[in-house]
Amino acid sequence: MPESVLKMADKRLRAIVDLVPRCRCTADIGADHGKTGTELLLSGKCDRVVFSDISAPSLEKARNLIFEKGLEGRAEFLVADGLKGLSGSVDCIVIAGMGGQNIRDIVLNGKSEAGDAELILQPNTGLSHLRRALTENGFMICNETVAAEDRRYYVIICAVRGQMSLDEAEILAGPVLLKNKNEVVRQYYSHSLETAEKLIMELKQSGADHRLEKLYWEREIWKAALSG
Ligand SMILES: C[S@@+](CC[C@H](N)C(=O)[O-])C[C@H]1O[C@@H](n2cnc3c(N)ncnc32)[C@H](O)[C@@H]1O
């Protein structure tokens, strides 16, 4: 068994690592603790990793982990905003654990630096906005998965350059997830339905109904996703 920095409970990071293709070089943007990139090196999935973070103290954590594991010969460190400073020679770019709007801005502002790299994106919020922005800006979603950790669900999206149009159900529930409803995806849809129903009840009681129409519509999409 190769050495690992991930524990059994690290389902989110494990799912991200699993989606990275075997490749020469991956960039871990917003690397912070550096576990994702370190695991990619330890597992042999990537020959090299560029660790980048907008915060120098955050990047220091990744640097410490890499030196602790003796992997400094295969790593590069950048303090940079988004994809700035990437040389264009990376095969894959991981952007995880941030808000969807931040990820969208990083991707759209860094299109030239990204080149043809595959994107592995894990937004904590704003999934629909991110899917819409990707498909309206020359990317297609080629894979999606859901990881369940600590009673939370994390959707991970893989995107490459290309054209794709999505209907509104696919924007909300995910074009690939809708076609691949495994047990975790079903649990995620069920949780999303419960959340929508709870919010509908709360908004009805408070009399604040301006968001209700959208929530009714979302509830129907979650129900349809679960029924198929
Ligand atoms: C919550 S951590 C996520 C760490 C890791 N990627 C993960 O998924 O567990 C978010 C990291 O993203 C960094 N970050 C936020 N905005 C950024 C940007 N525009 N460019 C680069 N890094 C950014 C933060 O400094 C922080 O270290």
Considering the chains and any ligands shown, give keywords for the structure:
10 helices, 24% strand, seven-stranded mixed beta sheet, 7 strands, single chain, binds S-adenosylmethionine, alpha/beta, Rossmann fold, 228 residues
Structure description:
The protein has 10 helices and 7 strands. The chain has 228 residues and is α/β, with parallel strands linked by helices. It has 2 domains: 11-165, 3-Layer(aba) Sandwich (Rossmann fold), CATH 3.40.50; 186-227. Helix 4 (100-109) packs parallel to helix 6. It binds S-adenosylmethionine.
Ordered list of secondary-structure elements with their pairings:
Blueprint: H1 11-19, E1 23-29, H2 35-42, E2 46-53, H3 56-68, E3 75-79, E4 92-98, H4 100-109, H5 111-114, E5 118-123, H6 127-136, E6 139-149, E7 152-161, H7 168-173, H8 175-179, H9 183-206, H10 212-227
Parallel strand pairs: 1-2, 1-4, 2-3, 4-5
Antiparallel strand pairs: 5-7, 6-7
Helix pairs in contact: 1-2, 4-6, 9-10
Bound molecules: S-adenosylmethionine (SAM).
S-adenosylmethionine binds next to strand 4 and helix 4.
Short summary:
This protein is of the alpha/beta class and 228 residues long. The chain has helices spanning 11-19, 35-42, 56-68, 100-109, 111-114, 127-136, 168-173, 175-179, 183-206, 212-227, and strands spanning 23-29, 46-53, 75-79, 92-98, 118-123, 139-149, 152-161.
